[in-house]
Amino acid sequence: MSKRSAAGKKPQTKLGHLGRDPALYRGFVNPPAYRGSTVIFPTLASLMADDQEFSYGRICTPTVKELQESLAELEGGDACFLSSSGLSAITAVLLAFVEAGDHLLVTDSVYKPTRRYCNEVLKRLGVETTYYDPMIGAGISELLRPNTKLVFTEAPGSQTFEVQDIPAIADAAHKAGALVAMDNTWATPLFFKPFEHGVDISIHAATKYIVGHADAMLGAVIAKGGRSVEALSAIHDAGGMCPGPEDVYLGLRGMRTMGVRLERHQTSAIALAEWFAERPEVERVLHPAFPDCPGHEIWKRDFLGASGLFSVVLKPMSKEALAAMVDDMDLFGMGYSWGGYESLILPFDPRAYRSATTWDAKGPSLRIHAGLEDLDDLIADLEAGFDRAAAKS
Fold first, then answer.
1. Is the pTM of this model over 0.85?
2. 249 has catalytic annotation
3. 330 an active-site residue?
4. Which residues pair with 222 in a beta bridge?
5. Do 257 and 118 touch, CB atoms closer than 8 A?
6. Residue ranges per structural domain of the chain
7. Of the residues 58, 301, 319, 351, which is catalytic?
8. Whether 328 is catalytic
């Protein structure tokens, strides 16, 4: 079955058939991982005309092309550009659309390394960044200036889980002549359609759910509209944004099962969130599917599902009790990534890096990624952790 058979099909079917054409590689189901730098031209005329589909490994390979075209199709964009990590995808977007003298609006709930890049690199380059309340909605119009070139959104925030009103923000930004970028890693192309809600540039840490197995680093930028595509194409070429062939291959492999994995992540995360909500140690649960999560009604209106990442705010406990809980988990590992098959638990405190809003939690907070393990085993692991914490209280 060729990749052409995916045209017009539903997303779950596309996941299995985009980005592969067995007729091109002697009937094998999966495309090969093209490893290479040099591409040979047959004649001087061909070299001077640069008339081949592929000219140099840094620019594109057949493997890269397959994944780029697949992700663009899944999300409804015009073009996709791959990079070596989610952060490199974010920085490429920022460099593509702002320059010295420009103003940038960034959600206060943004991924911390994005904030660091704005505060350290873009500031040095003469770009001013203003952070805004993620729940501002149409009120963002009051922050837009004549030199505001880009509004950077992330929905939901990957620690505190505010769900932004993307259509309202996009409408205000476009009226002011600014573009809108969105970090859509949490929802993936399956659970949120950014271009249907006014977004111009969608960004993914493909390391997370697209790869899905915690074994590769990969970023993706998907753009809609000629202005966005041209700017990103220029920065992608000039910046040498080339991911490794093995990582791209693993992105294609992970894409095949992303749909079924997300179903399991979603089911387990909601069940764990409900379990946490009943625990006496828990102050509140931050999950977009829960009514008391900021932006819950927006999530119901605009999103098609929820992935496996959410947070819980605990009631006050000592550092010793928290350490006793998380240090000896059997199944939940402590790590900074998420989106893989493994469950993760990560204490966090955003007070030091919020500037437009105030984080007022009295107790420690935990970010939870629900992996693919059995739900009963995950709950047993968490119960044992709370028991260890209680013994230290």
1. yes
2. no
3. no
4. 80, 202
5. no
6. 3-253, 257-392
7. 58
8. no
Greatest extent of the chain over all pairs of C-alpha atoms, in Å:
77
**Among residues 133, 183, 247, 302, which one is catalytic?**
183
Token output for 49: 């005309």
Q: What are phi and psi of 81, to 5 degrees?
A: -125, 125
Using the CB atoms, write b or e for 10-30: b if 16+ within 10 Å. Answer: ebeebbbbbbbeeeeeeeeee
The model's pLDDT over 338-350, given as tens digits with 9 standing for 90+, comes to: 999 999 999 999 8
Considering 20, 65, 193, 208, which one is annotated as catalytic? 208
pLDDT at residue number 1: 42
Task: Identify whether 111 is a catalytic site residue.
Answer: yes
DSSP bridge pairs for 154: 183
CATH number of 3-253: 3.40.640.10
Domains 3-253 and 257-392 share a fold: no
Q: What is the CATH number of domain 257-392?
A: 3.90.1150.10
CA 298 to CA 105: how far, in whole Å?
Answer: 21
d(CA 1, CA 237): 33
Cβ(2)–Cβ(21) below 8 Å: yes
pLDDT digits (tens, 9 = 90+) for 166-202: 999 999 999 999 999 999 999 999 999 999 999 999 9
